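Project standup — Tuesday

K.O.: blocked on the structure for the chain from last sprint. Re-posting the sequence here as requested.
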Amino acid sequence: MLKSFFQEEKIEAGCDEAGRGCLAGAVYAASVIFPKDYKNDLLNDSKQLSEKQRYKLREEIERDAIAWAVGVVNEKEIDKINILRASFLAMHRAIDKLKIKPEYLIIDGNKFTPYHDVPYSTIVKGDGKYLSIAAASILAKTYRDDYMNLLHKEYPNYDWINNKGYPTKKHRDAIAKYGITPYHRLSYNLLGDGQLELFPNE
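H.V.: unblocked you, prediction finished:
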């Protein structure tokens, strides 16, 4: 089972993001605060869970957490400030929305932009080590998946219902054939071959 807390003196929130490596769509992040005695044997890194498990756990997280929130940074902002800064900004936006203010943050990964004066620790593969980070990874992933499923209805040619904006062959072939959408990240190498012809049919 994952650890409940990194430290026990202060109110601790776990943070993680989803969608950093995608060619299209916003990056999502979440922040979660659990009760001090919280246990959940099923919680794990979202990448280790099936889609059905993630959505079931999302219900449990939202029910059991003292506070939780999701933050979003769209593709235009990503292009403007770069994806790393956008990931941290999405986390900041999630923390901003928490109904209880955390006194300590644990962040998945090895870098973070400080959030005001709140102390923090970065933890590599933290989503497989701490319950609150795992929970944040599940919320970020499932809410981003919901969002990409909606975008798929608008632009079905790119197979976002399946690839969620990640650089699959089908996604890149669709970009080559149909061009880009307003949701594509223009700062990315969208075709994967160093050549980006934005509007191939014009």
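K.O.: great, moving the ticket to review. The chain has a mean pLDDT of 93. The longest strand covers residues 12-18.
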